Amino acid sequence: MPIRVLPEALIDQIAAGEVIERPASVVKELVENSLDAHATRIEIDVERGGIGLVRVRDDGAGIAAKELALALSRHATSKISSLDDLNAVRTLGFRGEALPSIASVSRLKIASRTQGAAHGTEISVAGGKATGPKPSAQLAGTTVEVRDLFYNVPARRKFVRTEATELGHIARLVERLALSRPDVAFRLRSGERVLLEAPVSFEATQVDQRLSAVLGEEFLTRAVPVSQRSGPVELTGWIGLPTASRGQPDQQFWFVNGRSLRDRLLMNAARLGYRDVLFHGRHPVYVLHLTIDPELVDVNAHPQKLEVRFRDSRQIHDFVFRAIERTLAATRPDTAVAPSPPPTVLAAILPPELELPTLLPRDPDDFPRVREVAPLDPAVVGGPPPPPAPPAQVSADRRAADASLGTAIAQLHGIYILAQNRDGLVLVDMHAAHERVLYEQMKRQLADGGVPSQHLLEPLVIDLKAHELDQLIVHRAEWEKAGFEIDALGSTKLAVRRIPVLVKPGAVADLVRSVLHESETGDGTHHLDAAADRMLATLACRSAIHANRRLTLPEMDALLRQMEATERANQCNHGRPTWMRLTMTELDQLFLRGR
To answer: How far apart (Å, rounded) are the C-alpha atoms in residues 423 and 417?
Structure first.
């Protein structure tokens, strides 16, 4: 076949394959054009999941009548005019491909009217043939109707999913767009059904309402605001607490200069910021806006503009990672956002249909066992009340009760600490809590110069596989920072000459093998601090108090006070919660009080 120039209609359809993947792609391109036209209200109507109809109406600047036909030509745009403009794009669209690409695979009609024009103008395109322009009753702004998407490209039509699936993609897209621009009103309808109604949000309470409408009412109660700036880069928004994590990454929203993205570099930086507090397999929730000088970011990096390239990607990655890490580090155990047991747990304890007699245990052994307490002296029971505690003791008890985690009252099964505060009952996983306290302590020591360590009179010799020994020696610097001194004795023997003071010599072999195992099964997240931190986390886990360790009440209270002063103390190093609470209201419900 000889070389030849392809027909314009075929060229447009090839271009459409890169830009228009599904009905949601049409909505994205049209809404972004509306935003670039400074619209303050955008209405989206769809039928049959967007295959039958996508209509986008805005009150923006409009297109002049003499330019309407030109707007349907490939690479015709009002947003850039030179390479310098392309290097600092400040608009969402800039290529001039969207309208001609859409028109090549659908029946399109566009009507527009500029401010002050006597009337609107419309033009229609079907099968590559244009009709018009002609006068229209269009109000100020622009309306674009796209019908029968992919009607003339059967191969593409076969890849379109069900109407419900395509409508879901559109709904999620519009939610992203609504979160990107709270100063613009959005409405999405499918037939007569309104899927999203988002009024203009200028005040903080209105922005909160929009966030709640998209992410649910619980989002703001389980999220903390982010506001970090470094030179020309600023990060703002909200990040969910680790307890708000989800099984799917479906509530992660990134915006760069107002552009909605699914950028891998930014998503990886956010995931790294949660590395010490997120349970394995869970995904964080966030809405984050990155504002940056347009000259420092290249938006012309993806056909659908879903990813960008930063001039200094390493600095941006570290800035985002550190900003999220610092924000999460500032969280402390706080009853205002205390984690309560899920409703399913309470329902399992006391189902609504359960009758009162069945609440009574049938056998004394059914009672949970707590640590033994000496019985009261019969001579005291019924006698005069005991003398009041000294004022200093009363003051200390009151301060403890006012603290977030309250006052320790018992230890349950050698695993949990039971405490009471003014809100109710607090349950603390003592190993998880102590693990976090030790880990943060070790990280501070490492930053200040090194983890305290001790030399051994005789080196500990550990047998390893050759490749395991090689791996340890390669990372010898990280081991030294964590308080170890290691050497290779031959090809399969490791000599440990110095260990951290928190580690018992008898636990070193298991610790070494645990670090090796975690390195082999890691998630591939790499960072300058990651190797040392993983080692410290394992050290903390191995050194923390374990089950069946009996604690005195003062020891329990000391741990509670340490938790309140420790960064990220709501989760252990593996992301498990360290404490829960049952409020007095929840306890009253369990015992049917007030009914």
So the answer is: 16
Rounded to the nearest 10°, the torsion over CA 368, 369, 370, 375 is: 110
Among 198, 228, 252, where does a domain finish? Answer: 198
Give the whole-angstrom CA distance, residue 286 versus residue 211: 11
Domain count, the chain: 3
Tokens in use for 534? Answer: 């993983």
Does one domain contain both 165 and 293? Answer: no
Q: Are strands 41-47 and 185-190 parallel, antiparallel or unpaired?
A: parallel
In a domain, 359, yes or no: no
Q: Which amino acid is it at 417?
A: I
Contacts of 471 (CB under 8 A, 6+ apart): 516, 519
Q: In terms of residue numbers, what domain contains 461?
A: 389-595
Strand pairing report for 407-412 and 309-310 = unpaired
Which pLDDT band holds residue 559 (cuts at 50, 70, 90)?
very high
Tokens of 542: 């191995």
Structure tokens at 437: 């306290």
Quick: pLDDT tens for 522-533: 544 444 456 677
Q: Which residue's entry shows tokens 């089950």?
A: 547
Query: What are 348-402's pLDDT values in tens digits?
Result: 444 444 333 333 333 333 333 333 333 333 335 333 444 444 555 545 555 555 5
Please state, in angstroms and rounded to a whole number, the distance separating the CA atoms of residues 501 and 393. Answer: 34
CA distance 385 to 362: 34
CATH of the domain at 251: 3.30.230.10
pTM of the model: 0.71
Whether residue 223 sits in one domain with residue 193: no
- Is the pLDDT at 298 greater than 60, yes or no? yes
Phi, psi of 307 (to 5 degrees): -130, 160
Cα distances (Å, whole numbers) of residue 287 to 131, 180, 240, 337: 43, 9, 9, 19
Higher pLDDT, 10 or 338: 10
- The one-letter code for the residue type at 44 is I
The tokens describing 561, both together, are 């006070």
Specify the DSSP class assigned to residue 95: S
Q: What is the mean pLDDT of the chain?
A: 82
**Domain boundary residue among 170, 198, 226?**
198
Which CATH number covers residue 513? Answer: 3.30.1540.20
Residue 147 CA to residue 138 CA, distance in Å, equals 19
577 within domain boundaries: yes
